Amino acid sequence: MTDPFKFSSSFSLSKTSSSIIILFLPLILAFSVANAAAFKLSTISFDDGYTPLFADFNIHRSSDGRSANLVLNRHAGSGFISSKYYDYGFFSAKIKLPTNYTAGVVVAFYASNGDVFEKDHDELDIEFLGNIEGKPWRFQTNVYGNGSTSRGREERYHLWFDPTNDFHQYSIFWTSKKIIFYVDGVPIREVTHNEAMGGDYPSKPMSLYATIWDASSWATMGGRYSVRYEYEPFISKFTDFVLEGCAVYPLEQLLDSLDCREKKAKLQLAEYADITPEGRQAMKWFRERYIYYSYCYDTLRYPVLLPECVIIPSEQVLFKESGRLKFEALTRRRSRRPRRVPGQRNPIRESYRQADT
Ligand SMILES: *[C@@H]1O[C@H](CO)[C@@H](O)[C@H](O)[C@H]1NC(C)=O
Ligand SMILES: *[C@@H]1O[C@H](CO)[C@@H](O)[C@H](O)[C@H]1NC(C)=O
């Protein structure tokens, strides 16, 4: 990945051009991060990896079989699931989210084994939360292990681009050592396995799910805005499917075949298995600007830090003890945001609510 901070050498230019650069700094940064980063991956067709999960009639495959649209309309949402379970893996897709009024709509891209392990399931989530017209989509990530649903590990963020304009690559990397969430190849969250996490670290084979559904009761400003079906259909587009890792049946993991060990070793060597120094810079850049809730800074909820939390001072200063942004951080970001509807409440003030996937 190209270093998003490379352009800083241009500061040796004249005063005027430096101030122009400073003016457009966030834009330039966003531009370089977004363009430099997405992984070049070998992709599979929909049928090679997935099967419908519900509301078949709302899943539309492209004629070449390499893309699929998930529709939410007044009749149903829809979803698909990987045909196999993966004993660790790398899951990725390019996704284009529905546009215009999408309050109450949730698009989820996540790994889970809740269908097999009802009481002690594991889960890794990327969930996109729709918004009223003219306001940006937000998204959250979460990690559950062995049924740790009473210990949510949510983080919530804005994006540095409009996810309804184009396809962007969203990826989840998961091994016994660490979990990394990526957006266009930019690492946005890393969870390093820590013995003290015990079963909270997801370790049983999971399938990959993609769904679109009506979450009117909570998705937008704590449920203030519902899905409005006069704007149907809501269409989320998926392409460039990637499912890497050892495909197994859920209880087969115990066998740990040679083939599986090889696939796991291959996973550890992939370009996305470790965050490069440039990737760390991009992650810092992202987190200082786009995160707006983190459980690690929510000391009201977790007076004792959960064991994997690493407190980063440059992030910590942004947050109140509720894990939400301080007023100063809010206003600084607000002044950066170009598209605001006057008189509307800022969505980042919305109160946190746990995702009920
Ligand atoms: C979005 O809304 C605008 C204005 O309300 C409309 O012109 C446009 O067709 C809508 N786009 C979609 C994809 O529905
Ligand atoms: C996971 O949960 C099950 C039952 O809830 C328990 O028996 C098991 O010891 C747990 N595993 C770990 C690794 O904590």
TrEMBL record:
Catalyzes xyloglucan endohydrolysis (XEH) and/or endotransglycosylation (XET). Cleaves and religates xyloglucan polymers, an essential constituent of the primary cell wall, and thereby participates in cell wall construction of growing tissues. Its EC number is 2.4.1.207. Residues 335-357 are annotated as: Disordered. GO terms for biological process: cell wall biogenesis; cell wall organization; xyloglucan metabolic process. It is found in: Secreted, Cell wall; Secreted, Extracellular space, Apoplast. This is Xyloglucan endotransglucosylase/hydrolase. Residues 9-238 form the GH16 domain. Residues 347-357 have a biased composition (Basic and acidic residues). The active site is at 123 (nucleophile), 127 (proton donor). GO terms for cellular component: apoplast. It holds the Pfam family Glyco_hydro_16. Belongs to the glycosyl hydrolase 16 family.
